[in-house]
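Subject: for your reference before the review

Hello V.,

The reviewers asked for a structural picture of the protein, and I figured it would be easier to keep everything in one thread rather than splitting it across files. Below is the amino acid sequence we used in the manuscript, unchanged from the supplementary table.
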Amino acid sequence: MSVRPLVRERYSFGNLEETLELPDLIAIQRESFKWFLDQGIADTFRDLSPITDFSETLSLEFEFDPKDEDLCPPPKYTVEECRERDMTYAASIFVRARFMNAATGEIKEQTVFVGDFPVMTEKGTFIINGTERVVVSQLVRSPGVIFQPGERYRLRNLSKHQMVTGTIHPYRGEWIEFDVEQKPGKDVTAGTRVARKRRLSMFTLLRAIGYDEENYPGFLDRLVRHFNFLEGQWEKDKELHVTQEEALLEIYKRVRPGEPPSVEAARSYLNNAFFESRRYDLSRVGRYKLNRRLGPEIESIEKLFNIELEKPDPDQTVLTQSEVLATCTYLLHLAKGEPGYRLDDQDHFANRRIRSVGELIQNQVRIGLSRMERVVRERMTTQDVESITPTTLINIRPVVAAIKEFFGASQLSQFMDQVNPLSGLNHRRRLSALGPGGLSRERAGFEVRDVHFSHYGRMCPIETPEGPNIGLIGGLASYGRVNAFGFIESPYRIVKDGQVTDEIKYFAADEEEEYVVAQANAPLDANGRFENDRVLVRQSPQAASLQDLRLQLERDVFFAATTEISYVPPSEVQLMDISPKQIVSVATALIPFLEHDDANRALMGANMQRQAVPLMKAEAPYIGTGIEARAAHDAADMVLADEAGTVLAVDGVSITVDYRKAGKVTHDLFKFERSNQNTCINQKVQVAPGDKVKAGQLLADGPSTDGGELALGKNLLVAFMCWEGYNFEDAIILSERLVKDDVLTSIHIHEHEVDARDTKLGPEEITRDIPNLSDEIMADLDELGIVRIGAEVGPGDVLVGKVTPKGETELTPEERLLRAIFGEKSREVRDTSMKVPHGETGKVIDVKVFNSENGDELPPGVNQLVRVYVAQKRKISVGDKLAGRHGNKGVISKILPIEDMPYTSDGTPVDIILNPLGVPSRMNVGQVLEAHLGYCARWGWELDGETTGQEPVRGTERKTRISTTPAVHVATPVFDGAHWDEEDRAGKHPTIQKILGNINPETVSGERLIGLDGKTTLYNGRTGEVYDNQIMLGYVYILKLAHLIDDKVHARSTGPYSMITQQPLGGKAQFGGQRFGEMEVWALEAYGAAYCLQELLTIKSDDVLGRVRVYEAIVKGENIPTPGIPESFKVLIKEMQSLCLDVEVLDEVGHEVEMRELDDDVYRATEDLGIDLSRPERGSDEEDERRSAGVLR
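And here is what came back from the structure prediction:
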């Protein structure tokens, strides 16, 4: 019996000790959804309850307990069944509803079904209608109060009046905005805007909420004496709207212009809008932020003006009057320039929070329930009181619709990115500032997108898309976690008196600002004390005051807020970073030598790893960063042991394990399943019967994993050199070995679907009996007309035979007589079979048939649905895109025979040739170091009598292997990895240069090929001559990206035409043509190629009659007829006629040319020839009509 190691051993060049393991990488999804089930649903019902009618005699209460199995039963179907049958993986939710009639004292209680709520799978995804989806976390502005510089300082424009603003943002409800402004030659004024209406005096609002002479005599006078710059405004406002009632009416007039103002209406408006929980909700976060910001201010007002104010309750979700006052005084302190009062930065992570899955779904449920509440209220008034029960009152449709709409159509519910395990993992950790309640691409400025110092350890500064979404979509940093308030926290080690402890604490962005933080790589001695007298630390900057901004503006200088870097004695350090990789996301932390790459290229490297297609045989990188195993584990595409046990049986599709506690368990494997992106999900067994396994041990590898580690590409022998110009501008030259040995071959699975519907002329039928098809074509169809599994298919082959009824033609009397005698002739049908699209070939690997008669759920009007899965083996070919992990991407320009590739002096040909000019200007030197260290890992090394790695494979054997096991697998963690030649920084590990000097001999004879600089002599494969200079040789990890030439190559002879212009459509998806545009026409005009041009602009484009005749001439082998009048010319004439111009067309002799409309004989001719030359444009009205009539498929 063998015991296998849990993970592959890697020689690590890291010098720092990991005090904290990486957390669960998809906890952000799992924990949020768990909160929703355990607390979120119950909170929503609690907020809604009770619903009362307008007279408040009838009420309906809800009670929901998530632990009650009657209210929260488990899902009806398993995840696999839902995938198989196109269903949503969901659980039914019930609620106890209690109806009470206060007049009679009657109580009726029932358990009511509220709807099916989608449930998260183990992997942190949802199955909606059979497809896997992810709900992305959203970055939004945090509720609370925020003080910002006014337009004068924000826009750096002295002609603007606004100096400083303060806004109270609730989670739900109206904003209150305050500002201080000074117009030229006028007094400073403090104003406020309620519900984004016209500006009022601040004193009016203060009086309206109760700080008038009656309640607080003399208070406003004292306030103005303290903030003496307001005296001018106070003199004017003193006599205006003196009482609370007058002030209320003034506000009401602004907010509801056109309504007759009354004190009662005004008072109820102000109360309901800001001090009543139905319409105003600060949420827990908003309350926490307000207490942090305004709590001390309320106390200082009490001391300063010697008055007593109402303190907000810690759980209260509405405003208190004292908080409105505190916001005003804080703003005035800022304007006065008093010390200790600071402005906020809206892009700081203290003011941006995460809305995760749970909260997003909860908001959706809340919307549905509030719509339902309206229905319940209406029904309470319309139904007979005696017969009312909870079931008759409640209509669950709005709730179900709201949830369905969110999962099906929300910007944040996305089709899961399933190209490889990393792309899925990344998708679940994505943070998006877009979506409902967030930003829009068009309006987001530069500041929001920029990297901010508060992102450190929270959001990755590198991983973000290129293009319009840059900076709006990010990735959660590797150690980041989301706290109960939705703020991202990062872990730190506590430092006490210069001693770094193992105690770990998580801090949100605003909490971290109060500390002095040392970097993770600060040198420590054996006892965990700092080695140096001065330690490099960072301190968050003091937020700016208004005075700072004023000075900046006057001196015309600009200081952005960034962290302050300084050296301090060890005793002053309070915190220390956990690990150097806590700054970056998982995808970025997978790039070795990240510290040697330019950030722009690292961004491309991180993004391109997500596009790597799983290869037929995965191969772990020689050079990793040490987190490959963890990333693969949390991506959850492998099969792992649940606990300790013994493997009993293994076959191609399942593994049976005898666990100590659970007993005998069979794990089913995914075999050649299609992913959302048409890549292949295939799990391969990695254990044998009799093996002992531990909990969490690998049983089967998934796609792109090897030995439990993420393995996105292949290790290839690379030479950095130019080769006859074929690798100009990032082009790549490959060896034919990679094609022959299937080194870079991937499997892609396409799904083809066809349905049989009811049409106006009768039902469509899936059958083998298809008119005008030879037996040869139908050889692979079974008796039902569906292709057999295992059949090799190519373009145009029938996958599913289907016939559609044709319109009956008017019968002649003779035919009618014959029908009456001989009975009903077989009805006229057309062949509408599903065929393999252009340019696709492959093998049929699966067929699924759904029948409405068998109880399968199908859309209305569909009787039968057939899905055929075709697998395609794609070898690497010219035009495919390859990339390394450092943003070094390129397209294959030539595949050379093995014998033509440059080779080393022992006869080893290289696998891939890259252009050395791609390195210096791009500044991604990481690829060079990776190549050097990859070469060292391949052969192993011996230093000071100690050998690192196994004995390497040498000689001819390695030249014939598809992949070669290296002597040693290496890990070089980001910011703490191997060094080229700096021995002082390399710590206890050798430098790469030192290893190159002590590498094991590569040849059987014991001769060494490579020098200290990592270069060697190469020979020209064609001539056998030595290249002039030494050439750098190494092993680089190369990924095959999902941009494959087979998906892009496209050609057309005839095809669909646009309805209006009669010109060919564009694009591969529409089977369109290549546009010969204005500039191309000029080029042919310049050459004087008149006949080519005439042909292009008429018969190859929109001369409808001409193109049919040309097709006919080609079919019959005749000469090409002369072109006619293009349709676009007729459109031009119609356009001119619509402007009331009478247009005549004359030929060269002066005779009028007749403009014939499109005649029927054109269509008849094309049908006789068996071609459809006028397929309508996608999405046009005509297409819809023809589709509903069952003419188009």
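For the response letter, the relevant points are probably these. The CA atoms of residues 136 and 412 lie 5 Å apart. The chain has 32 helices and 56 strands.

Happy to draft the paragraph if you're swamped.

O.
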